[in-house]
Amino acid sequence: MKILIVEDDFLIVAQIRECVERLGHEILNSFDNANSAIAFVKIVKPDFVFMDIELHGSIDGIQCANILKNEYLVPSIFITSYHETAILNESMDVAPLNFLPKPFEDSNIEAVIALAAVTLKTYQPKNNESIIKLGNYEFNIEYKILKQEDQIIKLTEKELLLVSILFKNIGNIVSKERIDEYVYKNTLSSDDSLRRLVSRTREKIIGLNIKAEPKQGYYITTEKNLNHNR
Length: 230
Hints:
Low-confidence stretches: 124-128, 226-230
Mean pLDDT: 85
CATH architecture of the largest domain: 3-Layer(aba) Sandwich
Number of domains: 2
Radius of gyration: 19 Å
Helix content: 40-55%
Strand order of the largest sheet: 2-1-3-4-5
Oligomer: single chain
Number of strands: 12
Shape: elongated
């Protein structure tokens, strides 16, 4: 799994990082404040976040977790030393994956990661969550079908995979590396191959636009641009 840490205690960050990597998972990054974490998740989406409830700055851990969950569908495991009922009740409103109370040992980290893996693997979208709409298009996550006004859009396998990852990340920039991993399954591919794939797909989804963000990746939008970024 790909994991982000949002914690301002560098010793705790180091302990979590060492344990996570020993278990074979990847730490994408770590931040000591909410704003940096939110900016990062806009570009790179982790499977979940280890989130400290008490963060310095204008946005605390609960508020940050709420933003990540509602806007980017990224859940959190709360790192907390709080035991007050009010704080726990407030954090439960965010529906966290779990809690990691301080102080903790590596065995505690291993346990919450194992439970998170099961939760994320077995989660199935509800019927009203399996359809993602954008403009007059809708994408069915479960069956990987793209429709425009009830008409199925015929796409090749790779075009469909590209559309799938972009629809799942509406509002976010998807890095070229993530697209390459998802579409090409880490086989050898070039920037030209991806640009040609994007160009072909654009021509089939009239009314939508796949835009490029230089040095970052691609995102899908209803905004039109006569001169497409390559």
